[in-house]
Amino acid sequence: MSMVSNIKLIDENGLRIDGRKFNELRPIKIEVGVLNRADGSAYIEWGGNKIIVAVYGPREAFPKHTQNPSRAIVNARYNMAAFSVDERKRPGPDRRAIEISKIIGEALESAIFVEQYPRTSIDVYIEVLQADAGTRIAGLTAASVALADAGIPMKDMIVGCASGKVDGNIVLDLNKEEDNYGQADVPLAIIPRTQEVVLLQMDGNLTREEFGQAIEMSKKAALFISNLQKEALLAKYSRPEEKEEVKEEEAEQENHGDDNHE
Ligand code: CDP
Fold first, then answer.
1. Ligand 1 pocket mutation, candidates 104, 135, 176, criterion most atoms within 8 A of CB
2. Residue 225 · residue 159 · CB < 8 Å
3. Less packed terminus of the chain by CB within 10 Å, N or C?
């Protein structure tokens, strides 16, 4: 969050540099079950962010001393690909990735019924392929969908959004330029069913009133994104019988094709 103010982020019509209104989200697309070897997976595109998440478990926690006899442990690993940002990102965990992994893991843990799986670990790999601000929330939002895809029982799918301050205005879902040259960034994640706040951070400065405004904006957006999560799951799991039928038909047609050759 830099305080450089000679870059104009809002034009005379009140539009942001990518053409959005103050309370407008970037386009979001979620896909479920994109990896065959993971127990659950999801891919999210959120503005310029592209993130893939793989979930493994619950499985016996290893090494053994990490096991908790009364509940599952949740290991989240947030990682940025070297090519995900303008300047090559040096591979491996840095302070930022360690922080983000920790807060995402803690958020997920508060939604998962961890007591149902003693001595196990649930491993969540968040790989950022392309970053454009808001990756922690986009990663967490996709991770929840991947956990649901893995069939892990939860209170609800966690969802979130960031809001912040740009050229003195409170705006929703900051992009990279707004994050870099704006005055504040406040990522928020909630459990929609219980309305619990499971992640809340602030970079920069806001008045109490502005802070309230930012939270309200993000919460509203989060509920909208919550529906996108559900739609993505439904798209994978609805009408599986029909999909099977289609596969059978295709197989039959292929067989006929073979017959013709003979
Ligand atoms: O991504 P998020 O907003 O959750 O976290 P951030 O620490 O506020 O980072 C904002 C953005 O800065 C990231 O999404 C990346 O686009 C960018 N960034 C970068 O270009 N190089 C890094 N080493 C880290 C972040």
1. 135
2. yes
3. C
The answer to whether the bond into 91 is cis (omega within 30° of 0) is no
Q: Give pLDDT tens digits for 126-182.
A: 999 999 999 999 999 999 999 999 999 999 999 999 999 999 999 999 999 999 999
User: Strand 120-130 and strand 73-80: pairing?
Assistant: parallel
Q: 98 alpha carbon to ligand 1 midpoint, in Å?
A: 13
Nearest atom of ligand 1 to the alpha carbon of 174: 3
The class of domain 28-235 in CATH terms is alpha beta
Q: Is the pTM of this model over 0.85?
A: yes
Looking at ligand 1, which residue's alpha carbon is closest to its atom 14? Answer: 133
**What single-letter DSSP state applies at residue 41?**
E
- 147 residue type, one letter: L
The model's pLDDT over 181-207, given as tens digits with 9 standing for 90+, comes to 999 999 999 999 999 999 999 999 999
